Amino acid sequence: MHLLPITERLRGAAAHREQLRDEGYRDTHLRAAVHAGEVDVFRRAWFVSPDAPDELRTAAQWGGRITCTTFARHRGWWMPEGADDAVHLHFPPGSTGPRMPWTGVAHWTQPVAPVGRALVATVEDALAHIAVCQPPAVAHVLWESAARVEQLSPEALRAIRWPSHAARELATEITGLADSGLEVLVCRPLRRLRVQVRQQVVLAGKPVDALVGEWLVLQIDGWAHHSSSAQRTKDIAHDAELRLRGYTVLRFSYAQVVHDWPGVERTIRRALAAGLHARA
After folding, report:
1. Residue 66 burial (CB count, 10 A)
2. SS3 159
3. Homologous superfamily of the 181-273 domain (CATH)
4. Which end of the chain is flanked by fewer CB atoms within 10 Å, N or C?
5. With a threshold of 0.85, does the pTM exceed it?
6. Residue 12 burial (CB < 10 Å; 0-12/13-18/19+)?
7. DSSP E strand boundaries for 14-140
8. What are the domain boundaries of the chain?
9. For residue 1, what pLDDT band results from cuts at 50, 70 and 90?
10. Vertex 70, ends 66 and 71: CA angle to 5°?
11. What 8-state DSSP symbol labels residue 120?
């Protein structure tokens, strides 16, 4: 059996001793690589490449699994500005856990989905931990982002036996339609105003971020949304076409949504008070 050099096998990653043994690596190979400084070993079981992400090295060091917001960042989910940046690890009951004080956040729960030896929790466990650990608005953003990035349908999320009321409630709210977390930050509070809010409705040949009632269009620009003048020109042309068709278009920037939500909400409420969402 041809084996890659251990440095290539572990490039940017980590593996458990038993997994490496099953692949044909002998303990002598592993010890030699550790002594040569080519890989690091934690808890006598986890072999980690020096260029592995810091969160993987931390999980190997403490014997946990990356979860919650640490998992979200690891997987590239959309993260709200100012979201919790502590290291979150999952320790199933019966595991040893951290043997001395540390500055991270420990989640001691039974796994929602079966998992073997791993340094990364399952998507389901990460979502379960987010539901009870993060503020509701942040949790909602992360769940919507997970639905898109991990290609999870709302129906599949609702079928899971979630261990907490918070997770079950989030599963009923997820639409899978949010193009970005900014949409969630806007649409979640608007739905509490008891007005109809629909996301990614196609109008004039293109989807809009949100349609309030029948005639009020909300467009939300991400921080890197207008990276080209060509894209900006297309947006302006689409806004103009919508106005010609009788829609009112309100466009907000990333900075407005994230840093001045009260001002954004006041503007939308004024539009609702003027009946712009229901104007025929």
Report:
1. 25
2. helix
3. VSR Endonuclease (3.40.960.10)
4. N
5. no
6. exposed
7. 14-16, 40-42, 46-48, 65-66, 88-90, 105-107
8. 6-52, 60-173, 181-273
9. low
10. 60
11. B
